[in-house]
Amino acid sequence: MDEKGYVKFKYHWIKAKLNLNIRQLNHWRAKLYRLGLIGANTDGIGFGNISQRIKKQEFIITGSGTGGLPLLNKNHYTICSKCDIKHNTVICRGPIIASSESMTHSAIYKFLPDINAVIHVHNRPGWKRLLNKIPTASASAQYGTPELAYEIKRLLEKTDLKEKKIFVTAGHIEGIFSFGRDIQEAGEVLLRALEI
User: Fold this and answer.
1) Is residue 11 classed exposed, middle or buried when 0-12, 13-18 and 19+ CB atoms within 10 A define those classes?
2) Helix or strand or coil: residue 24?
3) By CB count within 10 A, which of 2, 118, 162, 173 is most buried?
4) 3-state secondary structure (DSSP) of residue 44
């Protein structure tokens, strides 16, 4: 697979209707879309995703291929109930398959139990400015892979990622992740770093 937003993990998808409270999550997702931080490229390939923890390792996340939609509803979100980094496997249930970055979101929740929201966006100017100035994932760690998940663990051990709550991905051009105790904090960390 290449750098086009495709799912790189094995998944088990249980198609189901969900009754989720996505109001706050969807508010931030719409805001990030309006700012061009979530969207679609000229080929129509979506980018960016957003998630919120609901249980210890379960989280709501935007579905695969939803980046280019201006407004989402409950049919555009799914629940990741298990991500196995070692075996590169994701189990999700909902009306849509989980985002290609589900493995990365899961790693953040796994390694940071006090974190309850994760945002992933694309912004080339911000990415260029922040690259190697804030915690930066190795260029060998491609998006949505176990390698990127393990890279988060390394960044937590070797950098001030836990305090900064934001990192860029050298191997995923334009890719920026932020996180927080809730979606409000994750969004504020991101916009402050991007000076928006």
Assistant:
1) middle
2) helix
3) 118
4) coil
Q: Is residue 81 within 8 Å of residue 43, measured between CB atoms?
A: no
- Tracing tokens 């051009």 back to the chain, one arrives at 173
Q: Which of 137, 103, 118, 109 is nearest to 179 (CA)?
A: 118
Q: What is the pLDDT of residues 43-52, one digit of tens each?
A: 888 899 999 9
Compute the 3-state secondary structure of the chain and give helix, strand, coil in percent, each to the nearest 5.
Answer: 30, 25, 40
What is the domain partition of the chain in residue ranges?
Answer: 10-193
Alpha-carbon distance of 156 to 163, in angstroms, equals: 9
134-151: pLDDT as tens digits: 999 998 887 767 788 899
Tens digit of each residue's pLDDT (9 = 90 or more) over 8-44: 667 789 999 999 899 999 999 999 999 999 999 888 8
Q: What residues contact residue 178 under an 8 Å CB cut-off, 6+ apart?
A: 118, 119, 165, 166, 186, 187, 189, 190, 193
Which residues have C-beta within 8 Å of that of residue 158, sequence separation ≥ 6? Answer: none
Contact call for residues 4 and 144 (beta carbons, < 8 A): no
Cβ 48 vs Cβ 66: under 8 Å: no
Please tell me whether residue 85 adopts helix, strand or coil conformation: coil
For residue 50, give the H/E element and its range. Answer: strand 49-53
What pLDDT was estimated at residue 3?
A: 40
Please check the confidence at residue 85 and state whether its pLDDT lies above 60: yes
The fold of the 10-193 domain, in CATH, is L-fuculose-1-phosphate Aldolase (3.40.225)
